[in-house]
Amino acid sequence: MMASMGQDDPFLEAQADLLATLNATRSLFSSYLRIRSLAASASSPELAQARNELEANLHDLSSDLQDLIDSVKAVEGDPFRYGIDIDEVGRRRKLVEEVGGEVEDMREEVNNIANSQKRTGANGSALPPPSAFDPDIPDGDDYEAFEQQRQIEIMQEQDEALDGVFKTVGNLRQQADDMGRELEEQQEMLEEVDTLAERVGGKLQTGIKKVGWVIKKNEGWRS
Predict the structure, then answer these.
(1) Lowest CB count within 10 Å: 3, 24, 71, 110, which one?
(2) Distance between CA atoms of residues 65 and 14, nearest Å
(3) Concatenated DSSP letters for 77-118?
(4) Does residue 28 contact residue 50 with C-beta atoms inside 8 Å?
(5) DSSP class of 136
(6) Do residues 143 and 137 make contact, with C-beta atoms less than 8 angstroms apart?
(7) What's the CA gap between 87 and 129, in Å, rounded?
(8) Other C-beta atoms lying within 10 Å of the C-beta of residue 34
């Protein structure tokens, strides 16, 4: 890999920001689909808020993606001029294409729902099930089973997140235990130093007394 692939490559920095925004958008999209499947009407405030948050993220994601697309187009004509090899150009092109496709799929899903809601009017009629927009989702009782499976998957994801939290708490607790043991060891060392100091001080006092006794005795002899 050439020099431009170092940590100072602006494309790599923009790529990291793009992927972070993409992960956040995926989470909002999943939340939107869940709320949509449970909403009783098209005028649900929770549904409207979820859609607005998702559309805002999609807008930011599209803007970041366009910057990367422009960057890829700029280097495709003469990649060696920018110190980038052909394989890296291909990787970057594949990245923007895949992200672009995913963004377009999410945007189409939101637009399909919005158009359907406009056709039903503002009478608060019930939303159609997700199967009306996705042929891969079954109808009727099969849809209920599908929704139950989806809820199970969500709970499993939450359990995995909790496991991560517990693991972090466990690591912090272990670190606290280690620090506690180190403090106990240091306390023992300080106690040993204090004991030694007391012994030395006692011997010093005894020595001073002996010297004083000798001085007094010598003064007595002189007199």
Answers:
(1) 3
(2) 9
(3) S-GGGGT--HHHHHHHHHHHHHHHHHHHHHHHHHHHHHHHHH
(4) yes
(5) T
(6) yes
(7) 44
(8) 16
Which residue has tokens 């940590």? 7
CA distance 100 to 70: 13
Residue 71: name the closest of 2, 18, 1 by CA: 18
Instruction: Give first-to-last CA distance, the chain, whole Å.
Output: 99
For 7-26, what is each residue's pLDDT tens digit?
Answer: 567 888 889 999 999 999 99
Looking up tokens 């793009």, which residue turns up? 18
pLDDT value of position 129: 53
Q: Which residue has the tokens 């919005």?
A: 114
Q: What is the pTM of this model?
A: 0.46
User: Which candidate, 28, 21, 27, places its Cα nearest to that of 53?
Assistant: 28
pLDDT tens for 72-82 read: 888 888 888 88
DSSP-derived 3-state class of residue 139: coil
- Reported in sequence order, the residue ranges of 158-221 that DSSP labels E, i.e. its strands, are none
Rounded Cα–Cα distance for residues 18 and 68 (Å): 9
